[in-house]
Amino acid sequence: MKINFTILVVTVLVGMVHGLITTVFLFSSSNNRRANRILGLLVLGFSLQLIDYFLNKSGLYIQHSEYYFLPIYFSLSFGPLIYLYVKTLTVPGTSFRFSVLWHFVPGLLQFVFYTAISVRTGSYKTYFWFNIHQPVTQKIELYASFVSIGWYLLLSLHLLQTYRKRMDTYFSNTRNLTLKWLTNLLLGWLVLYSAWLLEHLCMTTPVGLLEVLMPVCIYWMGWMGYQQKDIIVPPLDDPTEAADTEKVSHDIAPSLVMRIQQAVEGKKLYLNPSLTLADLATEVNLPPRQVSFIINAHFGKSFNSFVNEYRVEVFKSKLISNTENRFTMLGLALDSGFNSQASFYRIFREITGLTPKEYLKKLSESS
Questions:
Q1: How many angstroms separate the CA atoms of 268 and 84, rounded?
Q2: Can you tell me the distance from the alpha carbon of 7 to that of 2, in angstroms, rounded to the nearest whole number?
Q3: Structure pTM?
Q4: How far is the C-alpha of 94 from the C-alpha of 86, rounded, in Å?
Q5: Which domain holds residue 310?
Q6: In this structure, which long-range contacts are made by residues 110-114, counting pairs with CB atoms below 8 Å and at least 24 apart in sequence?
Q7: Smallest Cα–Cα separation from 3: which of 44, 77, 64, 46?
Q8: pLDDT tens-digit readout, 17-44
Q9: Is residue 101 part of a domain?
């Protein structure tokens, strides 16, 4: 047996071994255990795909036809695993019920197909490859995989978008809760998917592009997933929508609006950087769903926007009184209830349309 060791073959081999090791680490991780085990299965699937690349590029397939059709192909499970991983991180109470497991029926059929062919003789595999698989079943498998992965990536992006809307409903500071790393991970999967699509449909990608991208993706998935701490997942129901579906038959009582305003303004709750909807609801002795509904219906804002507008106004007043420049902008922002410079700059610009420096310049010109 002769193995053709090239730089590409070594890259694939290293990625394959690293993927198998990463799978073990993800399964043993104590943080986000369910999500990391799903990610571990995805990494394992990618690693098994690299075995196919290794056998192909190293010349082992040509030397040993019995290696054909090993049950190492799970491309029809990649999309569902990505979707279930994102869902586990963003939707509370996600479990392996039948409503979830049916997504993996195509992947199971794919495994059964390869297992059935793998036990046949080498001569039969060669015949099946050239006369049936290459002209027919392989194309069906590829097109089905492309559609599956593309569809589940879209569903995953939708889940992430919905999660962020819920965060705005429950938290006043969401900088560390937006799962930006997960967005980057989804974009990485999208790049890998696009390279795979181009390689098989257009045949114009550089030789070895997919074989290089997949090990990189395996490393990135393992690193990003393993280092994440337990993720805060807000309740699934939207308090605003829930209150609306209850068909409130009367106008919002002014006394309730006043109670919320007095709590936020009078007790300066907005100065608490980690203020949540639950904190405000406890302060005014009302259910969180009702507080969220009142803020949305009466003020036309989410809880996040409602609180941050107070913080911006406080910052403006502090900036005006800071005539001797005794405090930095960041110091004033932190004293106004913001928890970081990045979130302060982003929120200030969203609300005023100006950066803090542009606002200060405008303020100086008008005085």
A1: 41
A2: 16
A3: 0.79
A4: 10
A5: 239-366
A6: 110/73, 110/74, 110/75, 110/76, 110/77, 110/141, 111/71, 111/73, 111/74, 113/137, 114/69, 114/70, 114/71, 114/72, 114/73
A7: 64
A8: 999 999 999 999 888 888 999 999 999 9
A9: yes
The string over 282-295, giving b where at least 16 C-beta atoms fall within 10 Å of a residue's C-beta and e elsewhere, is ebbebebbbbbbbb
Instruction: Note the pLDDT of residue 116.
Output: 95
**Final residue before a domain boundary, out of 171, 202, 227:** 227
For residue 17, the number of C-alpha atoms closer than 13 Å in the C-beta half-sphere is: 5
Q: Poorest-confidence range of 224-238, 255-269, 276-290?
A: 224-238
pLDDT beyond 70 at 244 = no
Q: What torsion, rounded to 10 degrees, do the Cα atoms 132, 137, 143, 146 define?
A: -120
Alpha-carbon Rg for the chain, nearest whole angstrom, is 27
Q: Please check whether residue 221 is in contact with residue 56, taking contact to mean a CB–CB distance below 8 angstroms.
A: no
**pLDDT, tens digit (0-9, with 9 covering 90-100), for 313-354:** 999 998 888 765 677 888 999 999 998 888 899 999 999 999
**Tokens 């060669």 map to which residue?**
126
- Cβ-in-10-Å burial (0-12, 13-18, 19+) of 26 comes to buried
Helix axes 288-299, 277-284, angle to 10 degrees: 100
Residue located via tokens 């403006």: 316
Domain finish residue from 204, 227, 250: 227
Q: Is residue 2 part of a domain?
A: no
